[in-house]
Amino acid sequence: MMKLNQQIIAPICISLGLTGIGIGARVLTLNELDEDGNTTNLDGKPLAIVDINSEIKISLDLITLEDWVVELLGKDAVSDELIHRAIVLQEASRMGLGLIDPLTQALERWTVSPKGPNDVNELLEKLHKSAEAKLKIIGIAEKDPALSARLNAAYEIVLRRRVSRATLSRNLFEAAADYAGQLRKTIDEALQKEGAYVQLGAWIIQDGQDRPLHLRGFDQYPEGDFFVVDRWTLLPLNEEQKRQLKNMESAAREVNKNGIEALLKIDTVAHGAVGDFLDRARHCLERIETELASLKVAVAEEAESIRNLVVEARAEQLRYMSYVVSLKDKYAGESSAVFSSGAALLESTHADLVGFQQRTKSFISGQAQFLIELRTEVGTSTLGGSLTKAEKVIETCLEELDDVVANFAGDLSELLKGSLLSQEINTAVLEFGEEVLKLTLDKVPQSTELNLKRAGMRKAKDVVILKLAAGSAKRQRQVLEERRLDLYRVLTHIEMSIGMIFADPTGTTGVQNRFQAGPSYSILFKGFGNREANYNRLLTPGFGLNVSALDFDKDDTPELGIAVVGSAFRDYLQVGYGYNVNEDVGYWFFGLRLPLPAFTLPSDQSPSLP
Amino acid sequence: MELLKTTILPTDEKKLALHIFRQLIFEKPHVILVVCGRGPDAETFVQRADRLTFSEKDPRWVVWARKPEQIKEVIDQLKDPQGLRDTLRDSRGFSLSLTDELRDVILGSEPVPSLMRIDKAFTKAETKT
Q1: Residue contact B126–A131, C-beta within 8 A
Q2: ipTM of predicted complex
Q3: Does B119 sit within 8 Å of A155, measured CB to CB?
Q4: Would residue A422 count as lying in a domain?
Q5: N or C: which end of chain A has fewer CB within 10 A?
């Protein structure tokens, strides 16, 4: 597994375009076969969305692949001129042969009177294209006596009898294609001698980690674990969901007691989110501080340059510690700041997280540099022993800090930044493993498949990358084509969503405010086969059943609310109409799924509801 | 000599030759190859060109101007985006597109055109530009 540097979005299709291969010419054709038996072509989209349980049928255009490989590697084996001739002849003859029937039909229509403008335009279009193809071939024949002889032989048919344009064209284009094939054979043999190869690899990327996937005929990886993301089974609440539900209950009590502002208090919400990693950072810093303090004593008799280094490092450590403590204070309930809106809260927290990441990275690199410089200055003096101990402690702490930044803060920051954006992936770091076969051109299979069910555990927003590459003994492997598939639960399925609803009773109840908050969960139908990116990332509409715990009569005994609900925007917003079974009262409601499920809201001990 | 899709312009009636030539160029939807001059080379050229006009339905056509000077005033009216007109003097022949543009000239210095050379001239007249 490799940690990805998520910075660069890789090009989807690389084009060499040196000697006539059409720009954007693709080797790979991808078709998705989903669980409902529908097939969807995935070509021509900058980013393809596929269902998480689908099978991807992969076809390779071997002629185009050969073009790419010859263009990329052929120059090492044969002359540019020969490659150019082979590619142009092959393309022109393919185009010419393909146009024979359409041109014949256009001529048939053109001879009918009266001719419509469409008939004339169609004829001209076909005539022009066919002429261009033929002129390319004649142009090469004028410089290549062998091709010229072949074409002249093909022309001789007209001396024996009057033939149609189609007959002569077929003779000429076939002769050219045959000659091109002969040239390609020469080139292919030379390529084989050069050790040219082709590779096709697939990876799944989950939470920044990549894992290779098996492609029949292209690698020796074993098939992955069979895993189906269930569409219809409603599982019992897992521990995480139970915890979320409990949090929602606490939050609902807080809201019912103090109003909606309670949710926006930084000291109640953000503390739980950021406090943990700030604590971890502070503990690390305390250990570093102890070591630096000891080191300062130990170097008291050493050269000034050494003392200065330690003093500087300690000063930097104290500055960073002060920064972390101030941040910790901000999120530890010292402040009673209430943000004007949820957006302002998220914006501020995100800015702090980004600042923390940058500041911590800078601290880590500064301390690492300090250790290197100190080791150089100290050399082999008697100080070496105590320095080694300090080095170990500091290095361990720096690794921990690095881990905090890379994982916890990174994930939370990503969540706050908005998980609505497409995951950015630097595909350059996806390396072909030893198990991926290096195939000569004649051994490349024409098709393969990627069964996502055989890709082990998956979840929505995972990404699959396919890379087609070629290389040789002399030339470094180069990527010819790259495709990206974003996995979502595209087909209709059931999802459960836990959140908080704000119920507005339509009858007489004991509720004093307009809304009463209550924990709830919704069972939603979603997906509906839509493969639009924004639909799957942002809109995610659904409808279904909402079940909530209400207390309209304020007797501290939860009452069951059952409602029909519509949901959108990744369930952040839900609206519905329900019925309080115990109180026999209907209610309108809107629901919220708090965007930060990791937040731990402080429990309110007061059992009373408004 | 069997010529199915070739119009031989008269040599003794300049007016008639001009009329026929003008009609073929400006009124008929043809891709035309004009063969100039007479003699065995021109005959060979015409025979080969006629075979490359294919079937009746095809827009290709051959005009044999045994006295090309007779049709000079029509040639001067042809569109010539490539500036080929100056090379027409003493040429063996030339091709004209459906839009009456001068597209290719087979020079007098070239050998008797082969089937490939004639087809190239026709084909140039069938391209877009």
Answers
A1: yes
A2: 0.95
A3: yes
A4: no
A5: N
